[in-house]
Amino acid sequence: MSGVRSADFVLDTSVSAAWVIDAQITPYKLSVLNSLHTKIAIVPALWHIEMSNLVCKYARKNNLTMPNIEVHLAELGELAIKTFEWDASKAARQKQGALRSVTQTALAFGLTSYDAQYLQLALRENLPLATCDEQLCASAKLAGVAIYQP
Length: 150
Description:
This protein is of the alpha/beta class. The chain has one domain (9-143): 5'-nuclease (Rossmann fold), CATH 3.40.50. The protein contains 7 helices and 4 strands; from the N terminus they run βααβααβααβα. Strands 3-2-1-4 form a 4-stranded parallel beta sheet. The two termini are 21 Å apart. The relative contact order is 0.19.
């Protein structure tokens, strides 16, 4: 695998959001969380921004203070989640290609550019995708990417 050592699946925000914002936790989301005791998830860098945004929205809605928020962030930090990192020199050479590639994937599968990054990471690393997003599930299946089953 390029850039990642021993990841078992790609994790989408549609699954992980429920773990920190008291959203509807489903058996699938809980089993993915529990699988992180023995498995390693990988996420694109975008995942951190998406999770931060969800925590901020939740904090505003529920009048949480920073100490309350820190608890949620610490819980996330303890999970076996790796961030896919591009080699800096490769990233510089491939910047335009990456933009084109994400755009092509998003358009080809009717996804947002955000969701296209998760699909591309699963394709690139040949890993299953943990997601609850219906469109992303359908696109993954069309692209030959398995849905992660803990």
